[in-house]
Write a structure and sequence with these properties.
Elements lengths: L1 H27 L10 H24 L8 H29 L5 H28 L4 H7 L1
Helix pairs in contact: 1-2, 1-4, 2-3, 3-4
Length: 144
């Protein structure tokens, strides 16, 4: 499990850079990016880009030695767990930006890309490890 956690961390770090880069380009490229006034939309797009990379990285490197189920099942579950992780991140951003009124680039990044990311990552690792790429696919499919 330690080896998987390390690989998960590497894939997650690369996905984080993708997420962070896309989010900031959409919000702040050239001062006011194309989605400057839409931080939640920018976050959804950046998470989708990072998630696509993360699925293939985790399937083909982190959890490559685990049993495989159908691509459709894995992909669907992966995106469900990522959707919940994204909701966690969006919730942190929403509370900070709209409820507390912290609207700076720094505040948006801390709430979405630090606090939200940490909480979402913990949830995602558990979900991937337990449900998406389990050791024994047949037992998970029978319990579903």
């Amino acid at each position: 499990m330690r080896k998987e956690l390390g690989k998960f961390g590497v894939i997650g770090l690369i996905a984080y850079v993708i997420d962070l880069t896309v989010f900031n380009l959409l919000r702040f490229a050239g001062g006011e990016g194309p989605l400057y006034d839409k931080p939640l939309t920018a976050k959804v797009i950046s998470v989708l880009a990072a998630t696509t990379f993360a699925y293939f990285g985790n399937r083909n490197w982190t959890f490559k030695d685990r049993s495989r189920s159908s691509f459709r099942r894995e992909y669907a579950l992966f995106f469900v767990f990522n959707a919940v992780g994204m909701i966690i991140s969006l919730s942190c951003l929403w509370v900070s930006h709209y409820l507390l009124g912290f609207e700076s680039a720094l505040a948006d990044n801390i709430s979405a890309n630090v606090i939200g990311l940490v909480l979402g990552t913990i949830f995602r690792f558990w979900g991937y490890h337990t449900w998406v790429f389990p050791n024994d696919v047949s037992s998970v499919e029978q319990n579903s």
